[in-house]
Protein 1
Amino acid sequence: MQATSLLKIGTFALCVGLFGCERGVSFAGDVQPILLASCVSCHSKSGEGYAASGFSLEDYDGVMKGTKFGAVVVPNSSISSNLYRVIANKTDPAIQMPPQHETSLAEGRGYSLSEKQIEMIAAWIDQGAKNN
């Protein structure tokens, strides 16, 4: 019985250390600051990204509304969510976000989000994409 308890404690410690799963990912505290710092300059109601797609990243409602083409977040499935796919470079380079290539459809140029930021957004989606 003691070995089982130690295994559970070790697994929990590994999970906390590697993935920060001691708490859920918060939209307001974790995801929104990334979007505001890196994305909202184009995806605000006065930005190029909004003009082209109708996608606003200014607040939770805008993120969940998606684009004029449809939703971009599928709660509980980051791999099915276009938001995750475009920031994680899992799409055609022409639509990756932020635009970084001369072949990008968008005019602005930016820098990719860090792996940690991308993982944070994926975790938020996988945890249900809650307004928390």
Protein 2
Amino acid sequence: MSPHIVKSKTEQLALLLEDLRAYENISYEEFLAKDHYAIERLIELLVITASDAMIHVLSIAGEETPMTLRTTFLRAGELKIIPEDLAQRGAAAAGLRNLIVHAYAKVDLRIVYDSIRPALSDFTELATALAQHTGLL
């Protein structure tokens, strides 16, 4: 694994964040009427892309690949690749992603809607932390 893959993933995160930013001020009614599927997909992609980048960073550090998206965030926090509180929020986002993707239960769309701004903040912070850790910034 090489740092250029992490760079590519952080660039992809930036593009996904730009797409999500278009929904930052959407009303809940607009969200329900037409946009919730796009936002669900963007959150899914943010979680997957961020965890992919962290898996590469963990691999570079000689760490075993975590078994789940959630544990990928948590392990990165344990190793100080990302701040511990951010790792906890990333693990929670991975849980939301799992609910959306696997339909374990009916997805509470209010939770998805309320996740837009935190996702923008958290994944921006995560991309910056990964770039700093790998010397890309």
